[in-house]
Design brief:
binds zinc ion; binds N-(aminocarbonyl)-beta-alanine; 21 strands; Urease, subunit C, domain 1; 7-stranded mixed β-sheet; 14 helices; TIM Barrel; about 30% helix; 2 domains; about 25% strand; alpha/beta
Amino acid sequence: MKTLISGGTVVTAIDTVAADVLIDGEVIIAIGAPGTHGWADQADKVIDATGKYVVPGGIDPHTHMELPFGGTYASDTFESGTRAAAFGGTTTIIDFAVQVKGESLIDGFDTWMAKAEDECAIDYGFHMIAGDINEQSLSDMDVLIDRGCTSFKLFMAYPGVFYSDDGDILRAMQKAAATDSMIMMHAENGMAIDVLREQALERGETDPVHHSLTRPSVTESEATHRAIVLAELAGAHLYVVHMSAKEALEEIAEARDKGLPVFAETCPQYLFLNVEDHVASEGFEGAKYVCSTPIRKREDGHQDALWMGLATNDLQVVSTDHCPFCMDDHPILGTQKQLGVGDFTKIPNGLPGVEDRFQLIYHGGVVEGRIDLNRWIELTSTAAAKIFGMYPKKGTIAVGSDADIVVFDPDIDWTKSVSQHHMDVDYSPYEGKEVKGKVETVLLRGTVIVDGDEYLGQKGDGRYLQRERVSVHH
Ligand code: URP
Ligand code: ZN
Ligand code: ZN
């Protein structure tokens, strides 16, 4: 089956060119001048992309479908969450498999593989959350790397749940250095935060806003600094996840300027939401915006610093940390965010976003003049493919690459709302936001899975991605 995408402007992390794209089966076989002689005749299907951008499918390297957290589960399953991702122009996710205390790394990985298998609408891989570092876990890392899981997330936060101390972190980093795998870090000083949370509750400070206020930016920057020091000591690659504090970003910039293989991501919620307008909303509304690292104060200037970091490559990736919980009861999972009414420490942490990211970064980045078209693609697709061992199969439009392609209409104005999204969550953090640019058609390995408002794929279309070891240096 041959498909031709004709008349569009092909945008990659490098180029913006008027070109036609010819697909045979699952891969791109040619990119040529518009109207290249004979291509339309040999195509079984022609997609007219006149006036549209033809871009690589988005890669979201940080999602949590079905994550058990805070006494409930993230409300999107692999089925619902990946279908929503497809509507938003994302054709690959890397989710997090979880090892809980007392369980082996391999058992945790197998459990998550079983959850995702035959469910996903788009291609998927796994990082492994190592929640119990011991000799067996360190040796099991080799097994997972052979299975294409080449990145491991550690937590300096959440004592008693996922938390690792500095000794465990150093051991895991040494193993990662020896195996060319990536350490991903949730960098917050969880021990200090726990003291601040306890003291806030003693003062009767129970509203959602206190989630943000008890995680001051120094708890993020201190942990980021410590993670960098430990990674340097071990000679490991480090990727700091969901960064929200400008002071933490300064630590990343300094490490990169020294030439260390340190990378970092931020997420749309940190670029568009703030304490004053969102987390501090009346009543329990602020629970919608409770996540860790926290949404921070507008007046402190974090957002401008993060956008600047994205423009200058101090930050390399925009992921989502998609981890949705409903405000009202979920039909199957029951009470979610409301578990924290009267006690902010019990609000499940996380926000939806897997469907929003690609478009929001186009709007806030390209339309509002902070980054150019190529950087939009680099941040939302190409960089993640390179950092996490999937390039050039994923993350670009090139001969031989998977035909994961989005036809994007840059001229449509629309308003974001829970009423139009496909994620299984009962609110949108971006409700009422007016945006420009919309995903029109989405191809996964050559097959159209989204056409306007219509879903043409089926669960199980997505394949597990065997990822390579780390080969990026900077
Ligand atoms: O609030 C968040 N980020 N929830 C998901 C778990 C994590 O720490 O990434
Ligand atoms: Zn985290
Ligand atoms: Zn996360």
